Structures are given as C-alpha cells and as structure tokens.
Automatic annotation (TrEMBL):
GO terms for molecular function: fatty acid elongase activity. The lineage of its organism: Eukaryota, Viridiplantae, Streptophyta, Embryophyta, Tracheophyta. GO terms for cellular component: membrane. It comes from Buddleja alternifolia. Its EC number is 2.3.1.-. PANTHER family: 3-KETOACYL-COA SYNTHASE (PTHR31561). Coiled coil: none annotated. It catalyses: a very-long-chain acyl-CoA + malonyl-CoA + H(+) = a very-long-chain 3-oxoacyl-CoA + CO2 + CoA. This is 3-ketoacyl-CoA synthase. The chain crosses the membrane at residues 32-54, 74-95. Keywords: Acyltransferase, Membrane, Transferase, Transmembrane, Transmembrane helix.
Length: 506
C-alpha cells in the first residue's frame, strides 16, 4: 500500500484486439464530468441566469428605472402581497430547515504500554489459566495468525492477570479508565466546560451496570442536573453510529446544545473461558479501546469544527433468521457466558453493506441506479446491476475493523482500493477490534496521515449483532494539519502502513 491512491492501468494489454473503453482516459474524464455536472447542477444553472438578469438590468436607463418605480407605487397592493408572501416563505424556510450538526472534535483512548498484549503473551496467559484444551489453544493460535491483529493491541489488567479476574469491580475500573481517558483528552482539545454539555449518549453492548455508564460519567464530571442522558446496550459494534444518529435527532429539537457521545466496549466481563470455538473467536479479536465525540448545533461552532454531518442511514436485517443469529450473547453447554459468532457473519456483513450502498449514493449515482432499475424491471432489459464507483462518491472510508476476513469481504463487495481500506486494516492491526469505537481510530488514522482536506467526504460504515448496518457521511470543514493534532497515531504514524496479508479463500 502506498500513500497515494493506486491508479488503475489505463493502457490495455497487447493481447486485446479492441481498446478497453472501460479503462480509457476519455471515459474516466466523462464520468468525472458527469459527477461534477450532477453535483453542481443547480449552481451551473443559476450562474448563467444571474448573468442574464444582471446584463438585462444594466441596459436600463435611469429614466426607465424611475418609470418602473412609479409603476410599482401605483400597484401598492401587489407589492405588499408579494412582499408579505416573500417574508412568510423565508420565515417558514428558516424555521423548518434542519439545524446543522457539527463534529467539533473527537478523541480515541490509547491505553498504557503495560496493557499491551502480543500474540506470545496472549497464548501464554491463555495456557496458564488452565481453562482451554490443547486443541482449542491451537485453534486460538491459528485465529490470531489470520486475524489481522498485530503485536501491540491492548487488553485490560483483569484479563492479563494470572489467573484472570473478570469481576464487576474490574469491569467498572476498565470502563472508567477508557471513558474518562477519552473524555479528558476531548475536553482539553475543545476547552469545553463539562457543565456546557446538554446531551450525553454512551453505548456499550454487553456491560450495562447499575448505576449506568451515563451515571458514572455524570457523577465523575459533575454534569448539570437537566442533562439528557441515554445508555445504549446490546446493539453491537454498530451502536456508535446509532448514537450519532440519536444525537443528530436530539440536536434538531434542542437548540444551542452540545452532545457528547461515548463509544466503547468492555473486555473484562466479555472474556470467555470455555471451549466452544464459536465463542473463542471473540477472545482473539476484541481489544481494549473507546472514543469520545463532541457534536454541536451552534452555528458559531462552525469555524472551529472539523466536520459537518451530511446524513445518517440505518438498516436492520433482524427479520432474517440467519442475520439475527450471526452474533449472539449466550451460554455454552457448561454454563459459561460468551458471544457466539456464526460462520454466516462474513457473508451477512457483506450483503448488508451492499444493501446499504444505494441509500448513501450521491445524486449522480442515484440517477444511474434508478435508470438501471427501471430498465430491468419496467422494460425487461438485460442489464447488469449498477455498481457505483464509491471512490468517486467519497474520498475516505472508515469501515468497522471487525476482522481481516470481514474487511476482505467488504473490499470485494464495494470494489475498494488498498488505499481506501488502509485506515481500517491498520486500525485492526494496531488496536484490534475495539467494537463501535474502531471507526474513530480509523478517522484519526486518516487525519494523522494528512489525508483529510477541506470538502472531503468520509463514509463511516458499521455493522453489528441483530443484524444492523449503519452509515454516517461527514464533510470536512477544513484541512486537518497532523502537526496540530493529538491522537493515538501521532507518535508512530511514520511506521504505517504495514503489509497485512489477506485471507486466502480455500
């Protein structure tokens, strides 16, 4: 993988008898021109109209302007009615238009070095627990080798300890460490006072203590008494974007408000100590991490915000039995709790993302998709399904780092380049599957690489148990200067990307 996007070869091979028009330079520019025309069509139409009107007005003499003024004076009723209508329509527009949602800043928690877990440490600690058979220890070793995880991921103290101590006190300790670490960094970045936060949303799938995680944050930072707090549980790795969608809706009805979103997972009480292989996979993939995101609907915050939320899309495939049961928190035959992952997970994830695609197309692709659909359904034309060029619609992709095989499937289904997949693969390699927070480590990676430029669009894609597949599209309000950023990547970004072999099909 290289730092610049790999270009598809434009010269056809010598074995072809006819030129490959799909790869030709001319067709490439035709498609780029089409995207530009549709995206900026309104402006391209209005500019000539404004020029024509201005040219026409410039031909008016001073005497003609006086005549026009007298004419309007004698048609007072018409002028008053038109003015009132214009004021009414303007008022309705400004009152009903949605409030912009800005991403002021975000932070990703980076654990201390003593929490690092190499593959060797993982296997040693797993062996020392005495919980796993030799066959299943070998199974975990093979999963680790194929997982896409590197040698510097993190696990909580309770899991690394021998013997492990997965109790409620340790789980609370992990949650506080991750949440407060991310929030402290975010408050330092934004200079925001805790009392200014009006909405608080925390998502964590399996760890749902009482008092809630929201209550823990409110108590620690002494947030105001009328804060709107929400605790989302059991919604899997896609819950982070569900939280963003909820915050967006709340910011539409609560003006001049800040919303704090915290996305995390808890490893301590998720650690599986049995011998069901479908449950052992989570031990090999999930790692410690979390993110805090500050959103605002204050127009005055636009100047200091990084991104504007363009739209969110949520899809749910829970009505399908295969999708519903591909990730389940359950007990094994010996009564030990764990999360069982079905072999159908990879196919379900790939299908869900493909289904989601048309919902986030830009207008240019939606028109082509609609034309393709009409041609096939209405006119019974034999057309191939329209597959858009996602890399023309979006400059950056943040795809949930669920596992190497999952990323391979998404890359194939969306036909993405290695450059576009790099943030997801490097996040999986460096931090592992940090559940719903992985999207923010990926965005931080793109920022640390200096890739985010003003106007760039980023598509975040998350999927999780249920089965849900959710999206958010952000537009960069300014170019991000890595030298002025603080993120978990900054001190080591020069080491990436690294080569991570893809899973080979058998």
């Amino acid at each position: 993988m290289t730092e610049s996007k790999a270009n598809t070869p434009l010269i056809p091979s010598s074995s072809r008898k006819h030129p490959d028009f799909k790869q030709s330079v001319k067709l490439k520019y035709v498609k780029l021109g089409y995207y530009y025309l549709i995206t900026h069509g309104m402006y391209l139409f209005l500019y000539p109209l404004v020029v024509v009107v201005a040219a026409q007005l410039s031909t008016f003499s001073l005497q003609e302007l006086f005549v026009l003024s007298d004419h309007l004076r004698f048609n007072l009723i018409c002028v008053v009615v038109c003015s009132a209508l214009l004021v009414f329509l303007s008022t309705v527009y400004f009152l009903r238009r949605p409030h912009p949602v800005y991403l002021v800043n975000f932070s990703c928690y980076k654990p201390d070095d003593d929490r690092k877990c190499t593959r060797q440490i993982f296997m040693e600690r797993s062996r020392l627990t005495g919980s796993f058979t030799n066959e299943n220890l070998e199974f975990q070793r093979k999963i680790l080798e194929r997982s896409g995880l590197g040698e510097s991921t993190y696990l909580p103290e309770a899991v690394l300890r021998v013997p492990p101590n997965p109790c409620m006190a340790e789980a609370r300790k992990e949650a506080e460490t991750v949440m407060f670490g991310a929030i402290d960094e975010l408050l330092a970045k934004t200079s925001l006072k805790p009392k200014d936060i009006g909405i608080l949303i925390v998502n964590c799938s399996i760890f749902n203590p009482t008092p809630s995680l929201c209550a823990m944050v409110i108590n620690h930072y002494k947030l105001r008494g009328n804060i709107l707090s929400y605790n989302l549980g059991g919604m899997g790795c896609s819950a982070g974007l569900i939280s963003i969608d909820l915050a967006k809706d709340l910011l539409q009805v609560h003006p001049n408000t800040y919303a704090l979103v915290i996305s995390m997972e808890n490893i301590t009480l998720n650690w599986y100590s049995g011998n069901e292989r479908s449950m052992l996979v989570t031990n090999c993939l999930f790692r410690m991490g979390g993110a805090a995101i500050l959103l605002s609907n204050k127009r005055s915050d636009r100047w200091r915000s990084k991104y504007r939320l363009i739209h969110t899309v949520r899809t749910h495939k829970g009505s399908d039995d295969t999708s519903f049961s591909c990730a389940t928190h359950t007990e094994d035959p010996s009564g030990k709790l764990g999360v069982a992952l079905s072999k159908d997970l990879i196919a379900v994830a790939g299908d869900a993302v493909t289904t989601l695609g048309p919902l986030v197309f830009p207008m240019s692709d939606q028109l082509l998709f609609f034309a393709n659909l009409v041609g096939k359904k209405l006119f019974k034309m034999k057309l191939k399904p329209y597959i858009p060029d996602f890399e023309l619609a979006f400059e950056h992709f943040c795809i949930h780092a669920g596992g190497r095989a999952v990323l391979d499937e998404i890359e194939k289904n969306l036909q993405l380049s290695d450059w576009s997949m790099e943030p997801s693969r490097m996040t999986l390699y460096r931090f592992g599957n940090t559940s719903s927070s992985s999207l923010w480590y990926e965005l931080a990676y793109s920022e640390a690489k200096g890739r985010i430029k003003r106007g760039d669009r980023t598509w975040q894609i998350a999927f999780g148990s249920g089965f849900k597949c959710n999206s958010a599209v952000w537009k960069a309000l300014r170019s991000i200067n890595p030298a002025k950023e603080k993120s978990p990547w900054i001190d080591e970004i020069h080491q990436f990307p690294v080569e991570v072999p893809k899973v080979l099909a058998h």
